[in-house]
Design a protein that fits this description.
By secondary structure, the protein is α+β, with helices and mostly antiparallel strands. The chain folds into 2 domains: 9-205, no CATH class; 286-463, 2-Layer Sandwich (Heat Shock Protein 90), CATH 3.30.565.10. It is built from 14 helices and 9 strands. It has helices at residues 9-16, 25-49, 56-76, 85-105, 118-127, 130-149, 165-243, 250-274, 289-297, 324-340, 392-402, 426-429, 438-445, 448-463, and strands at residues 23-24, 82-83, 286-288, 306-311, 319-321, 344-351, 355-362, 406-411, 418-425. The protein has a 5-stranded mixed sheet. A two-stranded antiparallel ribbon has the order 1-2. Strands 3-5 form a two-stranded antiparallel sheet.
Protein backbone atom coordinates (compact mmCIF):
# COMPACT_ATOMS: atom_id res chain seq x y z
CA UNK A 1 0.00 0.00 0.00
CA UNK A 2 1.27 3.47 -0.87
CA UNK A 3 0.00 6.31 1.27
CA UNK A 4 0.27 9.75 -0.25
CA UNK A 5 0.77 13.14 1.34
CA UNK A 6 3.05 11.85 4.05
CA UNK A 7 5.82 13.85 5.57
CA UNK A 8 9.19 13.78 3.83
CA UNK A 9 11.25 10.95 5.37
CA UNK A 10 14.35 13.12 5.28
CA UNK A 11 12.59 15.63 7.52
CA UNK A 12 11.43 12.86 9.80
CA UNK A 13 15.00 11.61 10.14
CA UNK A 14 16.19 15.12 10.95
CA UNK A 15 13.55 15.44 13.66
CA UNK A 16 14.30 12.00 15.11
CA UNK A 17 18.08 12.48 15.25
CA UNK A 18 20.09 15.66 15.79
CA UNK A 19 21.75 16.88 12.62
CA UNK A 20 25.43 16.17 12.12
CA UNK A 21 27.51 18.82 13.87
CA UNK A 22 25.09 19.35 16.74
CA UNK A 23 26.12 18.50 20.29
CA UNK A 24 24.58 19.25 23.65
CA UNK A 25 25.97 22.17 25.64
CA UNK A 26 26.15 19.91 28.69
CA UNK A 27 28.46 17.45 26.93
CA UNK A 28 31.14 20.00 26.02
CA UNK A 29 30.84 21.73 29.40
CA UNK A 30 31.45 18.45 31.20
CA UNK A 31 34.50 17.67 29.07
CA UNK A 32 35.97 21.12 29.73
CA UNK A 33 35.35 20.94 33.48
CA UNK A 34 37.22 17.63 33.52
CA UNK A 35 40.08 19.24 31.57
CA UNK A 36 40.18 22.18 34.00
CA UNK A 37 40.33 19.89 37.03
CA UNK A 38 43.04 17.79 35.39
CA UNK A 39 45.15 20.82 34.49
CA UNK A 40 44.86 22.29 37.99
CA UNK A 41 45.78 18.99 39.59
CA UNK A 42 48.81 18.51 37.32
CA UNK A 43 50.06 22.06 37.98
CA UNK A 44 49.72 21.77 41.75
CA UNK A 45 51.42 18.37 41.87
CA UNK A 46 54.34 19.52 39.73
CA UNK A 47 54.72 22.84 41.58
CA UNK A 48 54.08 21.78 45.19
CA UNK A 49 55.21 18.15 45.30
CA UNK A 50 57.86 17.89 42.59
CA UNK A 51 59.06 21.44 43.36
CA UNK A 52 59.33 22.52 39.71
CA UNK A 53 59.54 26.27 39.27
CA UNK A 54 56.72 26.72 36.76
CA UNK A 55 55.18 29.91 35.41
CA UNK A 56 52.21 29.45 37.71
CA UNK A 57 50.59 32.86 37.30
CA UNK A 58 50.28 32.74 33.46
CA UNK A 59 49.20 29.09 33.70
CA UNK A 60 46.51 29.91 36.30
CA UNK A 61 45.32 32.83 34.17
CA UNK A 62 44.99 30.47 31.19
CA UNK A 63 42.93 28.02 33.27
CA UNK A 64 40.90 30.92 34.67
CA UNK A 65 39.92 31.96 31.13
CA UNK A 66 38.54 28.45 30.55
CA UNK A 67 36.57 28.67 33.79
CA UNK A 68 35.21 32.11 32.84
CA UNK A 69 34.07 30.90 29.41
CA UNK A 70 32.36 27.88 30.95
CA UNK A 71 30.53 30.10 33.44
CA UNK A 72 29.55 32.51 30.64
CA UNK A 73 28.12 29.61 28.59
CA UNK A 74 26.17 28.42 31.65
CA UNK A 75 24.54 31.84 31.99
CA UNK A 76 23.75 32.11 28.28
CA UNK A 77 22.62 28.59 27.38
CA UNK A 78 20.62 25.85 29.02
CA UNK A 79 22.64 22.69 29.51
CA UNK A 80 20.07 20.81 27.40
CA UNK A 81 20.42 23.14 24.40
CA UNK A 82 22.40 22.19 21.31
CA UNK A 83 25.49 23.80 19.82
CA UNK A 84 25.39 23.95 16.03
CA UNK A 85 28.34 22.81 13.95
CA UNK A 86 30.03 26.20 13.91
CA UNK A 87 29.51 26.83 17.61
CA UNK A 88 30.82 23.41 18.63
CA UNK A 89 33.84 23.83 16.33
CA UNK A 90 34.66 27.21 17.88
CA UNK A 91 34.31 25.68 21.35
CA UNK A 92 36.76 22.88 20.56
CA UNK A 93 39.12 25.26 18.72
CA UNK A 94 39.43 27.26 21.95
CA UNK A 95 40.23 24.05 23.84
CA UNK A 96 43.04 23.28 21.38
CA UNK A 97 44.49 26.80 21.68
CA UNK A 98 44.15 26.78 25.49
CA UNK A 99 45.97 23.45 25.70
CA UNK A 100 48.68 24.80 23.39
CA UNK A 101 49.20 27.82 25.68
CA UNK A 102 49.42 25.54 28.74
CA UNK A 103 51.98 23.33 27.02
CA UNK A 104 53.94 26.38 25.83
CA UNK A 105 54.33 27.42 29.49
CA UNK A 106 55.24 23.90 30.64
CA UNK A 107 57.80 22.46 28.26
CA UNK A 108 56.06 22.14 24.89
CA UNK A 109 56.28 18.66 23.40
CA UNK A 110 58.69 17.63 26.16
CA UNK A 111 55.61 17.64 28.40
CA UNK A 112 54.05 14.13 28.30
CA UNK A 113 50.59 15.72 28.44
CA UNK A 114 51.07 16.85 24.83
CA UNK A 115 49.22 13.64 24.00
CA UNK A 116 46.00 15.44 25.04
CA UNK A 117 45.97 17.21 21.67
CA UNK A 118 44.34 14.05 20.34
CA UNK A 119 41.27 14.49 22.59
CA UNK A 120 39.53 17.53 21.00
CA UNK A 121 40.46 16.32 17.51
CA UNK A 122 38.88 12.91 18.13
CA UNK A 123 35.79 14.48 19.69
CA UNK A 124 35.37 16.84 16.73
CA UNK A 125 35.62 13.96 14.25
CA UNK A 126 32.79 12.08 15.94
CA UNK A 127 30.30 14.93 16.29
CA UNK A 128 31.15 17.57 13.67
CA UNK A 129 31.03 17.78 9.90
CA UNK A 130 34.10 16.68 7.98
CA UNK A 131 34.94 20.28 7.09
CA UNK A 132 34.94 21.41 10.73
CA UNK A 133 36.94 18.36 11.78
CA UNK A 134 39.53 19.14 9.09
CA UNK A 135 39.84 22.75 10.27
CA UNK A 136 40.39 21.61 13.85
CA UNK A 137 42.88 18.97 12.71
CA UNK A 138 44.87 21.61 10.82
CA UNK A 139 44.79 23.86 13.90
CA UNK A 140 46.03 21.04 16.12
CA UNK A 141 48.87 20.18 13.71
CA UNK A 142 49.87 23.88 13.60
CA UNK A 143 49.93 24.10 17.41
CA UNK A 144 51.98 20.91 17.71
CA UNK A 145 54.44 22.18 15.11
CA UNK A 146 54.70 25.55 16.86
CA UNK A 147 55.36 23.90 20.24
CA UNK A 148 58.05 21.69 18.72
CA UNK A 149 60.10 24.85 18.12
CA UNK A 150 58.85 27.47 20.59
CA UNK A 151 58.14 26.77 24.28
CA UNK A 152 59.31 27.56 27.77
CA UNK A 153 61.64 24.71 28.82
CA UNK A 154 60.77 22.68 31.86
CA UNK A 155 62.87 23.71 34.90
CA UNK A 156 64.60 20.37 35.39
CA UNK A 157 66.82 20.04 38.49
CA UNK A 158 70.57 20.28 37.91
CA UNK A 159 72.32 19.11 35.83
CA UNK A 160 69.18 19.50 33.66
CA UNK A 161 67.62 17.32 30.99
CA UNK A 162 67.20 17.68 27.26
CA UNK A 163 65.71 15.22 24.80
CA UNK A 164 67.81 14.31 21.77
CA UNK A 165 66.77 16.18 18.64
CA UNK A 166 65.86 13.01 16.79
CA UNK A 167 63.61 11.88 19.67
CA UNK A 168 61.94 15.30 19.85
CA UNK A 169 61.31 15.11 16.11
CA UNK A 170 59.85 11.61 16.54
CA UNK A 171 57.42 12.95 19.16
CA UNK A 172 56.31 15.66 16.74
CA UNK A 173 55.83 13.14 13.92
CA UNK A 174 53.89 10.74 16.17
CA UNK A 175 51.55 13.51 17.34
CA UNK A 176 50.93 14.76 13.80
CA UNK A 177 50.31 11.29 12.40
CA UNK A 178 48.20 10.32 15.41
CA UNK A 179 46.08 13.45 14.97
CA UNK A 180 45.48 12.78 11.28
CA UNK A 181 44.83 9.06 11.70
CA UNK A 182 42.49 9.36 14.69
CA UNK A 183 40.58 12.21 13.07
CA UNK A 184 39.78 10.29 9.88
CA UNK A 185 39.25 6.98 11.66
CA UNK A 186 36.84 8.46 14.22
CA UNK A 187 34.98 10.44 11.54
CA UNK A 188 34.59 7.36 9.35
CA UNK A 189 33.23 5.20 12.18
CA UNK A 190 30.88 7.98 13.33
CA UNK A 191 29.68 8.55 9.74
CA UNK A 192 28.79 4.86 9.34
CA UNK A 193 26.85 4.99 12.60
CA UNK A 194 25.01 8.13 11.49
CA UNK A 195 24.04 6.58 8.17
CA UNK A 196 22.70 3.44 9.82
CA UNK A 197 20.79 5.54 12.35
CA UNK A 198 19.27 7.68 9.61
CA UNK A 199 18.13 4.64 7.62
CA UNK A 200 16.63 3.12 10.77
CA UNK A 201 14.92 6.41 11.63
CA UNK A 202 13.33 6.58 8.17
CA UNK A 203 12.05 3.03 8.54
CA UNK A 204 10.75 3.71 12.06
CA UNK A 205 8.95 6.81 10.79
CA UNK A 206 6.95 4.73 8.33
CA UNK A 207 6.38 2.09 11.00
CA UNK A 208 4.80 4.72 13.23
CA UNK A 209 2.61 5.91 10.36
CA UNK A 210 1.49 2.36 9.61
CA UNK A 211 0.46 1.93 13.25
CA UNK A 212 -1.65 5.03 12.88
CA UNK A 213 -3.30 3.49 9.82
CA UNK A 214 -3.96 0.31 11.78
CA UNK A 215 -5.60 2.41 14.47
CA UNK A 216 -7.74 4.03 11.78
CA UNK A 217 -8.83 0.54 10.69
CA UNK A 218 -9.98 -0.25 14.22
CA UNK A 219 -11.70 3.11 14.37
CA UNK A 220 -13.52 2.32 11.12
CA UNK A 221 -14.79 -0.96 12.56
CA UNK A 222 -16.01 0.80 15.69
CA UNK A 223 -17.65 3.54 13.62
CA UNK A 224 -19.39 0.92 11.47
CA UNK A 225 -20.80 -0.70 14.59
CA UNK A 226 -21.93 2.58 16.14
CA UNK A 227 -23.46 3.98 12.95
CA UNK A 228 -25.52 0.85 12.30
CA UNK A 229 -28.27 1.87 14.74
CA UNK A 230 -28.90 5.45 13.48
CA UNK A 231 -28.84 4.23 9.87
CA UNK A 232 -31.41 1.59 10.75
CA UNK A 233 -33.60 4.26 12.30
CA UNK A 234 -33.26 6.45 9.20
CA UNK A 235 -34.28 3.47 7.03
CA UNK A 236 -37.44 2.90 9.08
CA UNK A 237 -38.40 6.58 8.97
CA UNK A 238 -37.85 6.73 5.19
CA UNK A 239 -40.03 3.66 4.65
CA UNK A 240 -42.80 5.17 6.77
CA UNK A 241 -42.66 8.37 4.77
CA UNK A 242 -42.74 6.40 1.50
CA UNK A 243 -46.06 4.82 2.53
CA UNK A 244 -47.57 8.28 2.91
CA UNK A 245 -46.50 9.57 -0.49
CA UNK A 246 -48.13 8.75 -3.83
CA UNK A 247 -45.98 6.85 -6.28
CA UNK A 248 -44.60 8.89 -9.14
CA UNK A 249 -44.48 12.09 -7.14
CA UNK A 250 -41.38 14.20 -6.72
CA UNK A 251 -41.20 13.63 -2.96
CA UNK A 252 -41.62 9.86 -3.42
CA UNK A 253 -38.69 9.83 -5.90
CA UNK A 254 -36.50 11.76 -3.46
CA UNK A 255 -37.35 9.36 -0.63
CA UNK A 256 -36.53 6.38 -2.86
CA UNK A 257 -33.15 7.94 -3.64
CA UNK A 258 -32.54 8.59 0.05
CA UNK A 259 -33.47 5.01 0.92
CA UNK A 260 -31.03 3.69 -1.69
CA UNK A 261 -28.20 5.86 -0.39
CA UNK A 262 -28.85 4.71 3.19
CA UNK A 263 -28.72 1.10 2.02
CA UNK A 264 -25.43 1.84 0.28
CA UNK A 265 -23.99 3.36 3.46
CA UNK A 266 -25.02 0.28 5.45
CA UNK A 267 -23.33 -1.98 2.89
CA UNK A 268 -20.08 -0.02 3.07
CA UNK A 269 -20.08 -0.01 6.88
CA UNK A 270 -20.84 -3.72 6.98
CA UNK A 271 -17.85 -4.35 4.73
CA UNK A 272 -15.61 -2.25 7.02
CA UNK A 273 -16.87 -4.09 10.07
CA UNK A 274 -16.05 -7.45 8.50
CA UNK A 275 -12.55 -6.41 7.33
CA UNK A 276 -11.36 -3.00 8.56
CA UNK A 277 -7.94 -3.44 6.93
CA UNK A 278 -9.30 -4.28 3.48
CA UNK A 279 -7.04 -2.81 0.84
CA UNK A 280 -4.07 -2.41 3.20
CA UNK A 281 -2.52 -5.80 2.48
CA UNK A 282 -4.45 -7.57 -0.28
CA UNK A 283 -2.24 -10.65 -0.67
CA UNK A 284 -1.36 -12.98 2.17
CA UNK A 285 -2.53 -16.20 0.55
CA UNK A 286 -0.50 -19.39 0.32
CA UNK A 287 0.96 -20.66 -2.95
CA UNK A 288 3.83 -22.69 -4.33
CA UNK A 289 7.29 -21.17 -4.62
CA UNK A 290 7.48 -21.64 -8.40
CA UNK A 291 4.09 -19.94 -8.82
CA UNK A 292 5.31 -16.98 -6.75
CA UNK A 293 8.41 -16.55 -8.91
CA UNK A 294 6.36 -16.72 -12.11
CA UNK A 295 3.90 -14.23 -10.66
CA UNK A 296 6.58 -11.70 -9.66
CA UNK A 297 8.66 -12.05 -12.84
CA UNK A 298 5.60 -11.46 -15.02
CA UNK A 299 5.57 -7.79 -14.05
CA UNK A 300 9.06 -7.08 -15.40
CA UNK A 301 10.77 -7.13 -18.75
CA UNK A 302 9.95 -5.29 -21.98
CA UNK A 303 10.71 -5.38 -25.69
CA UNK A 304 14.44 -4.93 -25.00
CA UNK A 305 14.86 -7.11 -21.91
CA UNK A 306 13.57 -10.65 -21.46
CA UNK A 307 13.04 -12.11 -17.97
CA UNK A 308 13.49 -15.88 -18.26
CA UNK A 309 12.64 -18.36 -15.49
CA UNK A 310 14.54 -21.65 -15.23
CA UNK A 311 13.73 -24.49 -12.82
CA UNK A 312 16.16 -27.19 -11.68
CA UNK A 313 13.88 -29.34 -9.53
CA UNK A 314 12.25 -32.76 -9.57
CA UNK A 315 10.32 -32.68 -6.30
CA UNK A 316 7.12 -30.77 -5.43
CA UNK A 317 7.54 -27.07 -4.76
CA UNK A 318 7.48 -25.68 -1.21
CA UNK A 319 4.25 -24.08 -0.08
CA UNK A 320 4.97 -20.52 1.02
CA UNK A 321 3.10 -17.45 2.13
CA UNK A 322 2.70 -14.69 -0.47
CA UNK A 323 3.92 -12.01 1.88
CA UNK A 324 4.66 -8.34 1.14
CA UNK A 325 8.27 -8.95 2.23
CA UNK A 326 8.80 -11.51 -0.51
CA UNK A 327 6.90 -9.57 -3.16
CA UNK A 328 8.65 -6.28 -2.56
CA UNK A 329 12.11 -7.68 -1.77
CA UNK A 330 12.30 -9.95 -4.82
CA UNK A 331 10.57 -7.40 -7.02
CA UNK A 332 13.18 -4.73 -6.20
CA UNK A 333 16.07 -7.06 -7.06
CA UNK A 334 14.46 -8.19 -10.33
CA UNK A 335 13.74 -4.58 -11.25
CA UNK A 336 17.37 -3.61 -10.62
CA UNK A 337 18.53 -6.52 -12.79
CA UNK A 338 16.28 -5.47 -15.68
CA UNK A 339 17.55 -1.90 -15.50
CA UNK A 340 21.19 -3.02 -15.87
CA UNK A 341 20.68 -5.96 -18.24
CA UNK A 342 21.57 -5.62 -21.90
CA UNK A 343 18.97 -8.10 -23.14
CA UNK A 344 18.18 -10.82 -20.58
CA UNK A 345 17.59 -11.49 -16.90
CA UNK A 346 17.67 -15.11 -15.72
CA UNK A 347 15.79 -16.37 -12.66
CA UNK A 348 16.88 -19.86 -11.64
CA UNK A 349 15.40 -21.67 -8.67
CA UNK A 350 15.96 -25.00 -7.02
CA UNK A 351 15.27 -26.67 -3.71
CA UNK A 352 15.95 -29.80 -1.71
CA UNK A 353 15.03 -31.03 1.74
CA UNK A 354 17.31 -28.47 3.44
CA UNK A 355 17.07 -25.20 1.54
CA UNK A 356 15.35 -23.21 -1.20
CA UNK A 357 17.53 -21.17 -3.53
CA UNK A 358 16.81 -18.45 -6.08
CA UNK A 359 19.46 -16.91 -8.37
CA UNK A 360 18.87 -13.59 -10.14
CA UNK A 361 21.47 -12.81 -12.81
CA UNK A 362 21.72 -10.39 -15.71
CA UNK A 363 24.00 -9.87 -18.70
CA UNK A 364 24.86 -6.27 -17.77
CA UNK A 365 28.18 -4.74 -16.67
CA UNK A 366 28.05 -6.25 -13.18
CA UNK A 367 28.51 -4.63 -9.77
CA UNK A 368 31.21 -1.98 -9.39
CA UNK A 369 34.26 -3.41 -7.64
CA UNK A 370 34.34 -0.63 -5.05
CA UNK A 371 30.81 -1.32 -3.75
CA UNK A 372 30.30 -5.06 -4.13
CA UNK A 373 31.45 -5.69 -0.56
CA UNK A 374 29.14 -2.95 0.76
CA UNK A 375 25.91 -4.00 -0.99
CA UNK A 376 23.10 -4.28 1.51
CA UNK A 377 24.29 -1.31 3.58
CA UNK A 378 22.14 1.85 3.52
CA UNK A 379 23.04 4.71 1.18
CA UNK A 380 25.21 2.53 -1.08
CA UNK A 381 24.03 3.27 -4.61
CA UNK A 382 24.72 1.11 -7.65
CA UNK A 383 24.03 4.26 -9.69
CA UNK A 384 26.07 7.00 -7.94
CA UNK A 385 25.30 9.61 -10.61
CA UNK A 386 21.55 9.00 -10.73
CA UNK A 387 20.65 11.05 -7.66
CA UNK A 388 19.15 8.04 -5.89
CA UNK A 389 19.42 7.57 -2.14
CA UNK A 390 20.97 4.11 -2.32
CA UNK A 391 18.29 2.42 -0.19
CA UNK A 392 16.91 -0.05 -2.75
CA UNK A 393 19.23 -3.00 -2.08
CA UNK A 394 19.21 -2.23 1.65
CA UNK A 395 15.42 -2.40 1.71
CA UNK A 396 15.33 -5.63 -0.33
CA UNK A 397 17.95 -7.26 1.88
CA UNK A 398 16.14 -6.21 5.05
CA UNK A 399 12.78 -7.46 3.79
CA UNK A 400 14.11 -10.83 2.61
CA UNK A 401 16.15 -11.39 5.76
CA UNK A 402 12.93 -10.98 7.72
CA UNK A 403 11.65 -14.05 5.87
CA UNK A 404 14.76 -16.03 6.87
CA UNK A 405 16.78 -15.51 3.68
CA UNK A 406 20.53 -15.01 3.26
CA UNK A 407 21.71 -12.89 0.31
CA UNK A 408 25.01 -13.09 -1.59
CA UNK A 409 26.15 -10.63 -4.26
CA UNK A 410 28.88 -11.29 -6.81
CA UNK A 411 29.85 -10.86 -10.47
CA UNK A 412 29.84 -13.74 -12.90
CA UNK A 413 32.98 -12.40 -14.53
CA UNK A 414 34.28 -9.27 -16.19
CA UNK A 415 31.52 -7.94 -18.38
CA UNK A 416 29.31 -11.00 -17.82
CA UNK A 417 26.79 -9.47 -15.46
CA UNK A 418 25.80 -9.41 -11.80
CA UNK A 419 24.33 -12.23 -9.73
CA UNK A 420 22.31 -12.28 -6.53
CA UNK A 421 21.82 -15.60 -4.77
CA UNK A 422 19.04 -15.85 -2.17
CA UNK A 423 18.79 -18.90 0.08
CA UNK A 424 16.17 -19.86 2.65
CA UNK A 425 16.30 -22.77 5.09
CA UNK A 426 13.41 -24.87 3.84
CA UNK A 427 11.95 -25.49 7.29
CA UNK A 428 11.49 -21.71 7.67
CA UNK A 429 9.90 -20.82 4.36
CA UNK A 430 7.96 -24.03 3.63
CA UNK A 431 4.65 -23.87 5.49
CA UNK A 432 4.20 -27.64 5.22
CA UNK A 433 7.43 -28.17 7.20
CA UNK A 434 6.96 -25.41 9.77
CA UNK A 435 6.15 -26.60 13.25
CA UNK A 436 3.98 -23.55 13.74
CA UNK A 437 2.31 -22.21 10.61
CA UNK A 438 1.91 -18.83 12.29
CA UNK A 439 5.64 -18.27 12.57
CA UNK A 440 5.86 -16.87 9.07
CA UNK A 441 2.55 -15.12 9.55
CA UNK A 442 3.97 -13.16 12.45
CA UNK A 443 6.52 -11.66 10.12
CA UNK A 444 3.87 -10.98 7.51
CA UNK A 445 1.48 -9.27 9.87
CA UNK A 446 4.26 -7.09 11.22
CA UNK A 447 3.88 -3.73 9.48
CA UNK A 448 7.62 -3.22 8.98
CA UNK A 449 7.36 -4.88 5.57
CA UNK A 450 4.81 -2.29 4.51
CA UNK A 451 7.01 0.50 5.84
CA UNK A 452 10.03 -0.55 3.83
CA UNK A 453 7.81 -0.90 0.77
CA UNK A 454 6.54 2.65 1.37
CA UNK A 455 10.13 3.85 1.79
CA UNK A 456 11.09 2.24 -1.53
CA UNK A 457 8.05 3.78 -3.22
CA UNK A 458 8.98 7.18 -1.79
CA UNK A 459 12.53 6.79 -3.09
CA UNK A 460 11.29 5.98 -6.61
CA UNK A 461 8.92 8.95 -6.61
CA UNK A 462 11.79 11.15 -5.46
CA UNK A 463 13.98 9.94 -8.34
CA UNK A 464 11.36 10.78 -10.94
Amino acid sequence: MIVHNRNDPASAVEEAHPAMGRVRVRTLLTIRWLAIVGQLTALLVVDEILQFDLAMIPAMVTIGISVAINLWILTRYSSNEWHNDRGAAAYLAFDIVQLAVMLYLTGGLDNPFALLFLVPVTISATILSLRSALYLGVLAVFCVSFLAVYHVPLPWPAPGFELPRIYAAAIWISLVLGTVFLMFYAWRVAEETRRMSDALAATQTYLSQERELSALGSLAAAAAHELGTPLGTITLVVKELLHGQPEGGEVHADLELLNGEVARCRTILASLARNPSAGVDPAVSQLRFDALINDISGGYGDDETVVAVHAHVTTPAPLIRRSPELLQGLGNLIENATEFARSQVDLEYTWDDDQVELTISDDGPGFAANIIGLLGDPYISTRPDSGRMGLGVFISKTLLERTGAALHFFNQGRGLGATVVIRWPRHIIDLTMAEDGSAEGDAVSNPLGHELQNLRSWEHSNER
